[in-house]
TrEMBL record:
GO terms for cellular component: cytosol. SUPFAM superfamilies: Purine and uridine phosphorylases. InterPro entries: Nucleoside_phosphorylase_d, Nucleoside_phosphorylase_sf. Residues 19-240 form the Nucleoside phosphorylase domain. It catalyses: uridine + phosphate = alpha-D-ribose 1-phosphate + uracil. This is Uridine phosphorylase. It holds the Pfam family PNP_UDP_1. It comes from the Bacteria. It comes from Amycolatopsis albispora. CDD domains: UP_EcUdp-like (cd17767). GO terms for molecular function: uridine phosphorylase activity. Its EC number is 2.4.2.3. GO terms for biological process: nucleoside metabolic process. PANTHER family: FI09636P-RELATED, URIDINE PHOSPHORYLASE.
Length: 248
């Protein structure tokens, strides 16, 4: 990393394309970048691996943000500083509904702010909402790619493994929340507070509606999940371009 790079992610201080797909895992960023034209590594440090390239002729960023809201926020802040103004997260999530299956895509309308970090930015009553136009853009792209999809509210939760406290699972199921993951609400709040656009689509990697969510029931390394992520990458990139075109 050079002195001209941003300190956490190692990306340049300015000049990145305004449209970004953000993902948890560095390898997922590499896999998606391999499908871009003219992909180049723009920076790498810790869990943050960032590429630039173009998708259907439009310059984009693909970046990994790691696991958990606090670390992910460091990446979102540096990406925004470097020029990104629209973020779509392509993540994985546990399903909270029997009819939402492994490999399906959940398109987020909003997220429960149980991320453990956004409460330090703004009071908890402030909503974590997806930028309105991201939702129909993702739905249209999912249909175009024949991706089984669902839309609704996602539970972003900081703790992956249970502790001694009872999870409010029954309450969130009764409230109609459809999937659980770990970073989206931090992204949506960050975008809301900074006049940026953000949304997300999550590939289901199993059912997480029990009281014993966490490592004991977690099995994301299956073909049905890998196939879902591969399909979702094209969905999210297409939706990102559509949202970007609406800005022009
Ligand atoms: O697949 P990613 O994008 O990392 O998303 C999910 O997977 C991780 C948990 O293993 C958390 O980051 C969670 O949000
Ligand atoms: O947080 C997460 C992410 C993926 N799958 C889960 O069950 N939980």
């Amino acid at each position: 990393m050079t002195g001209s790079a941003l300190p956490v992610t190692g990306i340049p201080r300015s000049g990145l394309p305004p449209l970004a797909v953000v993902v948890g895992a560095p390898q997922r960023a590499t896999d998606i970048a391999a499908r871009l034209d003219d992909a180049e590594l723009a920076g790498e440090n810790r869990e943050y691996r960032t590429y630039t390239g173009s998708w259907r002729g439009t310059p984009v960023v693909v970046a990994s943000h790691g696991v958990g809201g606090p670390g992910a926020l460091c990446s979102f802040a540096e990406l925004a500083e470097a020029g990104v103004h629209t973020f779509l997260r392509l993540g994985t999530a546990g399903s909270l509904r029997k009819d939402i299956l492994s490999g399906d895509l959940v398109i987020a309308e909003a997220a429960v702010r149980d991320d453990g970090v956004s409460q330090q930015l703004v009071p908890a009553e402030y909503p974590a909402f997806a930028t309105a136009e991201t939702v129909p853009a993702l739905v249209r792209a999912a249909k175009a790619h024949d991706a089984p999809h669902h839309r609704g509210v996602v539970w972003t939760r900081a703790a992956f493994s249970p502790g001694v406290l009872r999870l409010p699972m029954r309450e969130y199921l009764a409230a109609g929340v459809i999937a659980i993951e770990m970073e989206l609400s931090a992204l949506l709040v960050f975008a809301g507070l900074n006049g940026l656009k953000a949304g997300g689509a999550l590939v289901i990697d199993g059912n997480a509606a029990g009281d014993d969510v966490g490592p004991a029931t977690y099995d994301p390394h299956r073909d049905v999940v890998a196939d879902g992520v591969h399909r979702a990458a094209a969905v999210v990139l297409d939706a990102l371009i559509e949202v970007g075109e609406a800005d022009e």
